[in-house]
TrEMBL record:
It comes from Qipengyuania benthica. InterPro entries: TrmE/GcvT-like, YgfZ/GCV_T_CS, YgfZ/GcvT. PANTHER family: TRANSFERASE CAF17, MITOCHONDRIAL-RELATED. The keyword Transit peptide applies. Gene3D superfamilies: Probable tRNA modification gtpase trme, domain 1. This is Folate-binding protein. Keywords: Transit peptide. The keyword Transit peptide applies.
Amino acid sequence: MPATRLFDRAVIRLSPQSDEEDVAAFLQGLVTNNVMGALPTYAGLLSPQGKTLFDFIVWPAGHGQLLIDCEKDGADELAKRLSLYRLRRKIAVEVDPEVAVHWEAHLGDGAVPDPRLADLGQRWLAPTSADDEPTDAIWRAHRLSLGVPEGRAEMGDILWLEANAIELNGVAFDKGCYIGQENTARMNWRQKVNRRLVVVPLDRSDEKRRRAVYPELGPGPGYAVDHLRVVDLDPADLPAWQRPAVSPAE
């Protein structure tokens, strides 16, 4: 059996506890992307200032439920925060240990392309099994080789658009209000994204602007995730999906 499970990921289940409750409508007013349309979709939960608290993928689950594919280390905190926003609504929010996140680098086996970037490969959810084998290190190396940041160590407290949310399909500007929407929409309207999260070879990383480091991954010295000024970036050094965002307008 091939190793496909991402043990560094967890799944949060949101379930209506009455026929009148609408889980998608509840989440729609909190997160950056449209969760009332086609799923899965990539989204974030932000601070009121538009800075990243959590990033995740939202999946359909049937019977009015939604599943959130998120970092395992932050799953309990994310579930707690969503529960606070729930107030008196009859919606259950809990980490579901019976569901696992799986990944493969290729496409075409009936799973779903990663909603951020198809080159990331395919993902799916499945019941946990004692036979699950980990592929977290291979996933991380693949993701970083494509220049895609993920998780709180790399993205936490960074403005959502500076975390490449537009380019990675993580924001909908026509969906209505959500937490952090005002500053996020203003930045987009003014085209004022002055910094970017970028994945760079470790030997070219700016230690003062470094968010995360992975010396054991990748060719040569490894990778780092830096938070750099757009004016200091050379588009030729960036992955193809990121270049248009930092290229000077003609």
